[in-house]
Write a structure and sequence with these properties.
The chain is of the alpha/beta class. The protein has 18 helices and 21 strands.
């Protein structure tokens, strides 16, 4: 009879699958908890100890690491010398392996998980069997995913065996399975011992969704989620209404929630094409919305909106008047949701803002032929460390406005200029190849909203004094930027000429 070795941590749907194998003339080898479940279901099983002639030892750490197991998996049926050796040593071929691994991921996701707990849930025998079976897929069927149970049974029922094509596909999945498992262990242990720049970077992600298309309609795309997703992330947001998120939606939503986590008071962020087009804050979310909308009532059309407070009816009614792609909030009042959901295509997402300070340490971006990795730009801003470099000192109100503008410019594509007061952005210039063009765009957008309360932020230093002069001539009273140019003094002198305040942070916030 053919033999199948079955040992799984996830026992869902297992019994019907194994019964199907028995009906196809398989003997079942099993061990531990899996054997107990099968025995209780009335399925006759052979213990691993009966196959190996050796007991489990070291609290079950060693049970399947044995030639009678791996010889049965790796022996090639088309090589006479292998067949002869197996007969001589009385090694029975194993034709199917159904294994999924110790729940390492589920273990380390527990808040109270200790290093010892994690170590004990590193599977050794399981991956070894999976790899042996997958390597010998020409003769052995390897099953690591319960989603494949029915496919395998259907082929046995129809043909008495699985096809070589199916076994090859299952083998490829098996190696993906063990690779992801090892990558997660590698990440966890590297983090525990403080490795920042490993000589080998092993990352693993899980397919979350297949996109309708990518950045453009002729590009295919897929959405992969971190194997250990953060609660404050687009991948963890719960979609309550609307059509499927697109590739661009996800990128924009990610950018928007990064901005929103900068603010604690009621704040609304409006974003378009990876750049903020309006940010408003207030004592209540409705007024914050009014200010975000007023910041740029044209660009907000078709935008992504993030509110860091529950959406009430009045705010919902105002948002309902516009075409918006996505609204993200920690929750929605029932009547507010009813109003917004009248538009069938708008995406309404609920996100856990309680975890907004849960920061991912590193971020990656793909390039042709490689990957760039860096720490996220999550430095804590401290205005007490800012340096006032002009004769005029900022007022308390100006400092509040400068900090607000500084947080906004941090998330705007470079070259970035933000004009704001302490309540809302007034004009944003983003992504221009030179800083003076960004300055002109921001000031043009701000227009007659520039008052004595208006300030300007630049994500990097001014290479010349032209931006300062232009800002001063159009009513800007205070400027914040990192400083660091060899011509900083020119900009300082220009600020003094017009009697405006200039503050240098010493921190640059390029965003490419």
């Amino acid at each position: 009879m053919r033999r199948a070795l079955v040992s799984v941590s996830d026992k869902n749907d297992l019994v019907p699958f194994v019964k199907g194998l028995v009906e196809n003339d398989f003997e079942i080898i099993s061990t531990g908890g899996t054997k107990k479940v099968l025995d209780e279901a009335g399925i006759k099983t052979i213990s691993v100890e009966d196959v190996t002639g050796f007991p489990e030892i070291l609290d079950g750490r060693v049970k399947t690491l044995n030639p009678y197991i791996h010889g049965g998996l790796l022996g090639r049926r088309d090589v006479p010398e292998h067949v002869e050796t197996m007969k001589k040593l009385r090694i029975h071929p194993i034709d199917l392996v159904c294994v999924n691994l110790y729940p390492f991921k589920q273990t380390i996701e527990k808040p109270d998980c200790t290093l010892a707990d994690a170590i004990e849930n590193i599977d050794i025998g399981g991956p070894s069997m999976v790899r042996s079976a997958a390597k010998n897929y020409h003769d052995v069927t390897i099953v690591v995913d319960k989603a494949d149970y029915q496919t395998v049974l259907d082929e046995f029922n129809e043909n008495g065996k699985t096809t070589l094509e199916t076994r090859a596909k299952l083998a490829a999945k098996a190696f993906r399975h063990t690779a992801a498992y090892d990558a997660l262990i590698s990440q966890y242990l590297s983090e525990k011992v403080g490795v920042e720049a490993p000589e080998k970077l092993t990352l693993t992600y899980e397919l979350e969704d297949t996109m309708r298309y990518g950045e453009n309609s002729h590009q295919r795309a897929w959405f992969y989620q971190d194997a250990l997703p953060k609660k404050y992330s687009v991948s963890s947001a719960r979609q309550l209404h609307g059509k499927q998120l697109s590739y661009n939606n996800i990128k924009d939503a990610d950018a928007a929630i990064r901005i929103a986590r900068e603010f604690n008071e009621p704040t609304v962020v409006a974003l378009k094409h990876m750049n903020p087009c309006g940010i408003g804050r207030a004592d209540n979310i409705e007024t914050a919305w009014d200010r975000a909308y007023a910041a740029d009532p044209i660009s907000i059309f078709g935008g992504i909106i993030v509110l860091n407070r529950k959406v009430d009816l009045k705010t919902a009614e105002k948002m309902h008047e516009l075409f918006l792609e996505i609204i993200i909030a920690p929750g929605y009042d029932d009547d507010a949701f009813e109003v917004l959901a009248k538009k069938k295509n708008i995406r309404l997402l609920q996100l856990d803002f309680e975890n907004k300070d849960e920061k991912t340490r590193f971020e990656t971006v793909s390039i042709m032929g490689g990957l760039l990795m860096q720490e996220q730009d999550v430095i804590e801003e401290n205005e007490s460390e800012w340096k006032v470099v002009t004769k005029n000192k900022p007022t308390k109100e100006q400092l509040e406005a400068l900090m607000f503008a500084w947080k906004a410019v941090k998330h705007t594509k470079s070259n970035a200029i933000v004009v704001a007061d302490d309540k809302q952005t007034l004009g944003i210039g983003a992504g221009q190849p030179n800083r003076i063009d960004s300055t002109k765009i921001a000031i043009k957008h701000a227009g007659d909203k520039i008052t004595d309360a208006a300030v300007m932020a630049s994500d990097a230093f001014f290479p010349m004094d032209d931006c300062v002069q232009y800002a001063a001539e159009h009513g800007i009273k205070a400027i914040v930027h990192p400083g660091g140019s060899i011509r900083d003094q020119d900009s300082i002198d220009m600020a003094d000429k017009y009697g405006i305040t200039m503050v240098m942070t010493g921190i640059r916030h390029f965003r490419h």
